[in-house]
Amino acid sequence: MFACRLPWWRSSVTCKSWQSGHFVPWGSCQMLTVKGVNTTVGQEQQAGMKEKQMLEDSEMHLTRRDAEALFQEQPKTGNPYLEDTLLQSYLKTHLPLKVLEEMHQNLERFGKRLLNEIQPLGWECELNPPVFRQFDAWGRRVDHIHTCLAWRRMKEISAEEGLIAEAYERRYTHWSRLYQAVKLYLFSSSSGGFSCPLAMTDGAAKVIESLGIPGSLKNAFDRLTSRDPEMFWTSGQWMTERRGGSDVANGTETVARKQPDGSYRLYGFKWFTSAADSDMALTLARIADAEGQCTQGSRGLSLFFLRVRDEQGKLNNIQVQRLKDKLGTRQMATAELWLQGARAELISAEGRGVAAIANMLNITRIHNVIGAVAAMRRMISLSRDYACKRVAFGKLLKNHPLHVQTMARMEVQVRGAFLLLMDIVRLLGLTETNLASEQEQLLLRLLIPVAKLYTGKQASAVAIEAMESFGGQGYMEDTGLPVILRDALVLSIWEGTTNVLSLDVLRSLAKSQGQVMAVFLSTVKKKLELASGIKELSPAAQRAQEAIGSLQQFMTNMGIGRALSMELAARDFSYSLARIYTGRATREPQSRGMGWVGRDLKAHPVPPCHGRDTSHCPRLLQPQCPAWPWALPGIQ
Ligand code: MFK
Predict the structure, then answer these.
(1) Which residue of 11, 20, 103, 116 has the lowest C-beta tally within 10 Å?
(2) Distance between CA atoms of residues 306 and 604, nearest Å
(3) N-to-C CA span, the chain
(4) What sign does the dihedral 554-559-565-566 (CA atoms) show?
(5) How far apart are CA 253 and CA 269, in angstroms?
(6) What are the Acyl-CoA oxidase/dehydrogenase middle domain coordinates in residue numbering (predicted)?
(7) How far is the CA of 358 from the centre of ligand 1 (A)?
(8) What pLDDT does residue 50 have?
(9) What is the dihedral of CA 541, 542, 547, 548, to 10 degrees?
(10) CB 53: neighbour CB atoms within 10 A?
(11) CA–CA distance, 366 with 203 (Å, rounded to integer)
(12) pTM, full prediction
């Protein structure tokens, strides 16, 4: 089923004309520029053709020589932890020394493993996407999703490295969550898509933990958080049905029928189930009453746990209809599933399914942010290395100020996003260890959708910009760069689209009756006051203050209660929150001098006013933030 989607270098059927170095459009293969192809043309013509071929062959010799001289040096990156100066500076600035020492050692080791073992496996996952086999040779329905060896190895490595376990063992108390996020961030762009099942696995563990780990779910929790590859389970999150994935309350048709033993059987069609090879899943369904009737809307939804297969590997009354043919994340099996009486356990209060699964959503949304920051970092690292090798117009790219300025703009994007991510996982860690104040919990609730929606857009824009920095090479499949772009494009779609998350920002405002906004503003202002006292940062802090002023003005004029106007402004409003918050983070005194340009480009600092172009600021802030520097095309 994948054959028609494969790029030429992955296809076993290659046009010989292409192999010979002479590309011939399919329609003109009859013209006999290809050796050894029988044709219907006459002998005379054939002789002429032979002569022509010889001429072409001699020309080809020269062409080949020329082509060899045109080769570019491949961009390479080293240990991703050691090369990430911003990450290292952040850890140094924020972590207690003892914790830092332990983490540093482990991250250095992990970085080496990523480079030598995990990156090649990730590429193998890309080259060997899952294959679905519905029937065996004897006509028996098997619905087997075959995943490659490298994919299965990723699962083992995830357990060995404690990529989920780390967050739940809490050996570094509230820093454990941050540590886990750092490992996932380093892992993400080498993981061959395995970060997706890990996101849902983490989300499922979080839901079970938040339910107090009931006895019936203890085994599942232990497995989701295990470091033993033999024990480790991954989880799916089946929310999307054929009527849509955003409006879950109205789109969910799956029905749950209670069994005499207290368990349930689920009947329905799940239209987009990521990582369908997972061991278990959390899913929503409507419980049918004695008459078979269900409550519609959000209040009719309950949350269920189910095993996908039994111990013998037999599907739990589930049929796989087909695998999805996606633009990206092709390494991962996303399937359409029929639930035909799948045995499941009710794990939320009846009718509280959405609220219960929100715990999972908030975790997977954080993973989405991790994926976005990681994709940007990877593209920029490669681009940076290339700029130190590629000569154009008589000098290295790194010596062209315009090129450096373009890279600087991307770097500012990823820096802001990284610091936002770190703040979120720091707050999550505090919340999970009961150390967070009420204000910090509110701030976390607001920042998750803000960060998810904003970094999702940033990742696509930065990936496209970085791809361009390689010229035509960036567009070539076998450089691996298009894979990163394709995989980044989904980040603003799944786990809630930009608009759905903008509305979630409003939901958090409404639910806290505006309290969350007060916390946001006071947090940002406090940090900016610190920056104002530092000469070098004070002009930027001043501009951020002005942006906050205009945001407050907007809210006063609007009034949170005016639902329609607020809905129309939701996206711009959320972008403004993201920009103000990341602006605050990048202007913290600790964030200065974190060596963003890296080893080879240090000689080329960012021009002081890199880009005063305001045309991409959200309308709300445009006139008031003339120096908002990190607006990229595509983020509007
Ligand atoms: C690299 C990363 C990899 C990630 C891989 C993941 C792959 C998986 C692919 C997928 O599964 S994609 C599908 C993901 N689906 C979504 O993200 C759903 C998008 N839609 C929404 O988020 C809607 O806003 C939502 C379904 C939540 C709307 O549902 P409702 O029922 O209309 O919402 P309602 O009635 O406002 O809220 C119900 C309850 O949930 C309320 O609680 P209360 O009843 O106590 O007041 C809300 O406060 C609560 N709630 C909703 N969203 C919440 C939340 N609570 C906390 N946080 C939230 N985000």
Answers:
(1) 116
(2) 55
(3) 37
(4) positive
(5) 8
(6) 237-340
(7) 5
(8) 67
(9) 80
(10) 15
(11) 10
(12) 0.86
Cβ–Cβ under 8 Å, residues 256 and 287: yes
Given this model, what pLDDT does residue 628 score? Answer: 35
With CA atoms as reference, report the closest residue to 163 among 149, 192, 183, 147: 183
Residue nearest to atom 35 of ligand 1 (CA): 298
534: which DSSP letter? S
Q: How far is the CA of 329 from the centre of ligand 1 (A)?
A: 22
Q: Is 202 in the pocket of ligand 1 (CB under 6 A)?
A: no
Computed over every residue of the chain, the mean pLDDT equals 85
d(CA 276, CA 320): 9
- The reported pLDDT for the residue numbered 65 is 62
Query: Which residues, 6+ apart, have CB-to-CB distance to 197 below 8 Å?
Result: 155, 234, 235, 236, 274, 275, 277, 278, 332
- 511 CA closest ligand 1 atom index: 48
User: Is the CB of 274 within 6 Å of ligand 1?
Assistant: yes
Q: Looking at the chain, how many residues does it have?
A: 636
pLDDT the model gives residue 1: 34
Please give the Cα distance from 609 to 479 (Å, whole number): 33
- Identify the residue whose C-alpha is closest to ligand 1 atom 34: 298
Q: Which of 247, 286, 336, 361, when mutated, tests ligand 1's pocket best, judged by the most ligand atoms within 8 Å of its CB?
A: 361
- The span from the CA of 332 to the CA of 274, in Å, is 7
Residue ranges, the chain, pLDDT below 50: 1-41, 592-636
Residue whose token pair is 């406090």? 526
Q: Which residue has the tokens 């519609």?
A: 296
Residue 15: phi, psi to the nearest 5?
-60, 130
